[in-house]
Amino acid sequence: MVMLLLLDERTDALTVRSARPWELVKAGLCAQHLDQELARGASPDATGPLALRAQTLARDSFRRSLARCARQILADAVRPAPAQPRLGRRLAVPVCRDRVRAAAAELAELIDRLQSPGPVPVRGVAQVSVLLGDGSGPLYHRGSPDDLRARLAEAAGALSPPG
Asked: Which of 21, 30, 36, 111 is found 20 to 30 A from 127 (Cα to Cα)?
């Protein structure tokens, strides 16, 4: 049984209840959309699916996974490009290597923040998840108008505990 801490809009009080089966399904199927909402600042205690997704994002193992992915992106960007893709490898969306190299310091800072001990704001983890998973974003899509360095710096800043 998964317990949720939610804000009751009628009373402005926090309530504790069990997650409903449909909320568990929605949290899994709509993870990308929920990450986008959380990255924009939606309250994790607003709905069951947001609370469930926030619980996933708050896990150290999830942050370590994002950090591994970011390290791999950085390593791939500085490594010489292969002349031809090898047969039998999975197809992957290539990163904009020059953009990643230009933003290496910001990406390294982001990785450090993801690996920092203790809790970090879920909003920051959601921003990283969205950035790393958005094939139309500045990390992968040359036509994206977003500045990769700015997005990385914003996400790293959002990973800092308030105070």
From this structure: 21
